[in-house]
Amino acid sequence: MNLVDRWVALAGPQARRIGAELDARYGEKHRRYHTREHLTAVLDRVDEWAEHAGDPGAVRLAAWFHDAVYDPERADNEERSARLAGRMLADTDLPDGTIAEVVRLVELTQSHAPAAGDRNGAVLCDADLAILGSDPERYAAYAAAVREEYAFVPEDFYRVGRAEVLTGLLDLPALFHTPDARERFESRARHNIETELLLLRAG
What we know:
With 203 residues, the chain is mainly alpha-helical. 67% of the residues lie in helices and 0% in strands.
């Protein structure tokens, strides 16, 4: 099933145009990591952990929108993606409460720090960060793709900025919040991040 068909299965045929626009956004040429492949991986993880969510449908919708706006030269992509979700979903028959939850969840992917008891937020954030707990080869490919998205940033500045991002992740009390994700990925993700930090600082 292609991405547009997957969207239609979630949101209905009347919303196909929204799915087509989102698919096009994730296919933008400047993206190297935040691509259709990443979206598919996040959607697959949400499906895998849906039982942990309070509203799996809202989490799936938020997954679609979480990187809908992605400009590596800006720091407000999550906020802009959330606004886009609010505007586009307002044209559907979704309840206002569901739309508000989707907007909230998209904004949450800026910090990846859901509050205790935020089951929807836990599932979305875990799905988005699952790449951090992948095997070393895949993690290295992820890190290289992120570097390509920031090719306009000089190496020294990139190393400093990337190290700040990674340190911020390590400072979180937990990277993962659902039981399965925590057990499978927490330790390996921290090891991967620490290894990347060592490489950044060695350069």
